[in-house]
Amino acid sequence: MSLIATYLQSMFIYSLIGLFIYGVPRIILIKKKQLKIYWLREIILSLFVAYLSGLLSQTIMPDFTFGVDSLTRELYFWFNFDNINANINLIPFKSITEYLYTTNSAVDDWGAISSLNLLANLMLFLPLGIFAPLLWIKLRSFKSILLLGIGFVTTIEFIQYFIGRSSDIDDIILNSLSILIGFSIFRLLQLGYDRYNQKTRSTNLATDKS
């Protein structure tokens, strides 16, 4: 649980930063051009930006170090692109099988780490499958959301190769599945909303006739 809490805390901080970077110029633009505000869409879009900022902070943000040198008293900041534990896996389901059925004595608390990795890959991209079709009508088909999901997560894995992180085809599989789960939730919510509207219209029509 401490690992999950650490990741969520880190995501939350970057989400706030991303929301601030997006929100301030957006407010200025709306006031300057006196744009009509659709509050529901603005709220959903802001939540999406916050989520995306947190997501990218955990997927394509390279490790970095900063502080003040104890000798020179100068501020230092650098990115670390070297990782001896980074690797590439192009064999489908290899990593998933290892996480589920093997142990690693060289890694402390391997069970918790492997479970967290699988859970994160299945849950981290789920909101994208909800936000994307909610904000853009063209992404409300299974084909379009599948192409978006595969393209998006493949791009992330490609970038990770160059920033000292592991690239794994199983991450693409799990992340894409996560997006499809989110999309399924969106479709269920959409179906429920449509049925509610249909029932409301039928009730209003019956009331008008009476």
Summarize the structure.
Helices cover 70% and strands 8% of the residues. It is mainly α.
* Helix share bin: over 70%
Which strand-content bin applies to the residues? 5-15%
DSSP summary, beta strand count: 4
Rg over CA atoms, rounded to whole Å, is 22 Å
Based on secondary structure, the structural category is mainly alpha
Q: Strands across the major sheet, in which order?
A: 1-2
How would you sum up the global shape? Answer: globular
Low-confidence stretches: none
Query: What is the count of DSSP helices, taking H or I runs of 4+ residues?
Result: 7
Order of helix and strand elements from N to C terminus: HHEEEHHHHEH
On the 0 to 100 scale, the average pLDDT is 87
Distance between the termini: 59 Å
Could you please describe the fold and organization of this structure?
The chain is mostly helical and 210 residues long. The protein has a domain at 88-209. 70% of the residues lie in helices and 8% in strands. It has 7 helices and 4 strands; from the N terminus they run H-H-E-E-E-H-H-H-H-E-H. It has helices spanning 2-33, 39-59, 94-101, 110-123, 126-135, 142-162, 169-209; strands spanning 63-68, 75-80, 88-89, 167-168. It has a two-stranded antiparallel ribbon with strand order 1-2. It has a two-stranded parallel ribbon with strand order 3-4. It is globular, with a radius of gyration of 22 Å. Residues 48-189 form the VanZ-like domain. This is VanZ-like domain-containing protein. Pfam families: VanZ. Keywords: Membrane, Transmembrane, Transmembrane helix.
